Amino acid sequence: MIALRRTSFDTTCRVEVEQSDKFLCAHVVLANDFAVGPGDCVRVHGAPISVGFGERRVVERSATVERASTIARLWTKFAGHFEMAELYEVSFSDRTTL
Fold first, then answer.
1. What tens digit of pLDDT does each residue of 35-83 get?
2. Per-residue pLDDT band at 98 (split at 50, 70, 90)
């Protein structure tokens, strides 16, 4: 099915935040294992979550998922190839280092 405009829905989610000597991360897991695709937006509602060093917190929140239209999804996939190319930086030098 071709979606010509964005659609959105609300769902619950689990937010996992950790700050330690091994990890500095934040993950959002949507309820019912909804898959998020290229161009989709997820907005988590609620107050900011802060954790001290060595702490890990898991919080239940509500979220709004906004699905991209078919055109926006295709554009995001296309543009993503060029964005990823910027991550590759290769340098060739004719000099030898000692």
1. 888 999 999 999 999 999 999 999 999 999 999 998 998 999 898 877 7
2. low
Residue 81's domain spans which residues? 7-85
Is 11 inside any structural domain? yes
| DSSP annotation string for the chain | ----S-EEEEEEEEEEEEESSS-EEEEEEEGGGPPP-TT-EEEE-SS-----TTEEEEEEEEEEEEEPPHHHHHHHHHHHHHHHHTT------S----
